[in-house]
Amino acid sequence: MLSYNYPLYAQRINKNFIKNSRIIQALKEINIEIREGEIFGLLGPNGSGKSTLIRVASTLIIPDSGIMTIFGLDVVKDAKSVRRLISRVSVEASFFKKLSPIENLLFTAGIYGLSKSSALRKIFETCEKIGLDRNRLNDPIEEFSRGMQQKVAIARAFLTEPKLLLLDEPTTGLDPRAKKKIQLLILETRKNLNVTILLTTHDMEEAEKLSDYIAIIHEGKIVVSGKPGELKKTVEKRVSNPTFEDVFMEYTGVKFEQVEQEQEEKDNVW
Amino acid sequence: MYGRGLIYEFSGETKAFKAFIERNFNLTKRYWKWELVFFVYTIANSVTIGFIGKGVEFFSGVHVDTNYLILYMLIGSIIWGYLSVLCEIVSETVSRERWEETIEYTFMAPIRRATHLLSMCGYAILYGILRSTLILLIVSIFFDLNLKGANFLSAVIILAIASLSFIGFGIFAAVLPLISPEKGTQAVHIFQSLILMFSGVYYEIQILPIWMQRIAKFSPATYALRGMRMAILKGANIWTLKEEILPLIIIGIIMIPLGTFFFEKMEFLAKKKGALKRSG
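ok -> structure tokens follow
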């Protein structure tokens, strides 16, 4: 056990990838401390390093240098124990599409060591909470809308009772109603299950609405972090009634949409 | 406390083992149309090969033991079908998960990689036996086979031991899609077809060039096919099959733990490269 028992603690995390003989610096000297019960919002445009950081926390990517711990356990050395404490929801629902929600969820329950009977009880409970129609639980998941698939993904994340929930753009691509429902669910989850949440998003409004603490990541580097209100206050001298867009511009020097567009162009070239 | 921890861990790994097998059977059930396509294809292939054996006397004009020849060819076809299904399912541990876009979630599960790999092997054996038995039953309708002298006990033992060594090969093959998402799966098929060529599926390896015979010695399929043919065609007792059983056991004992170890090392490398993700 390491001494710093934060739900997530990262110190000087660096990660480079090589793509077509070019070095891409995905994460640069990332330092993060997430406190218990907090919703930590990580805000940044596409390709800024949000998902790479989530993958490091998920034990799927090994950083080149630095240390990351989940409740004091090292994500590289204690990967198996870390996996028991975390759960993840990503942009894509990622299911066996021909299988039904029940078949997919029972598989997850099994590989997390849950018995079939307790898994079924939890599945039905969760489905009721998130408004998933019980009559459709045996239909192939490929027949579901994206919003419905994302609900099943959330049910999967809750099934294993994680202590740290990694939400990687969980509302991207959803219609406004489904988006609102998922956002409400995130707030309820934190309240009812006392779970700590790391939420990545490129939706400024969402980040501000849901997060207790926000860090803005740009080109692999955290450029600023603080409570939403505090961050806004830092730009109040220059902008009256600042929005998060203004905060982003202040610390990155560019408009959010512009960064998104540039990043997409870069990705296409690579 | 330590003992309780071990029991808890063992129980968790057992549940995971069952979950993988159940998931794979569910996938087989849901993709039943593809299963049917491959099943019909394999039957047509085996029956055609059987008829080639039956037609030898007709087109050569030389008297041959037709029953022996048909059985010789059919054993090659069915055993090859079984072993390649085994190797393919295990080697798909990574590629199928990547194709279904579930790889990140499955590899995030708090289980030992050995449990993950061995559960794929468990499913592969169950599926392979079910499939091959059905094929054998259907194919036998087309031919009047004489199996009076066959030693089925020896055949089953050879098949069981051969399964272990093929699982070891499958685990090694599973590494390829892990380290090369784009070319790994194709490389597995090249590897598989080369084993077919070197191992005497429809011929004795003695007819191969010397350099190929040398390579054939390292293939478990060589010993599996020879052992099966001796058991079914000549009724060989298990004690007379030591030369086939011993290499199969050795290959299995070496390949399974070595393959698992190698897989874990390559998984670490894939995580360093960032290759353990949905798309290549």
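Chain A has a mean pLDDT of 88.
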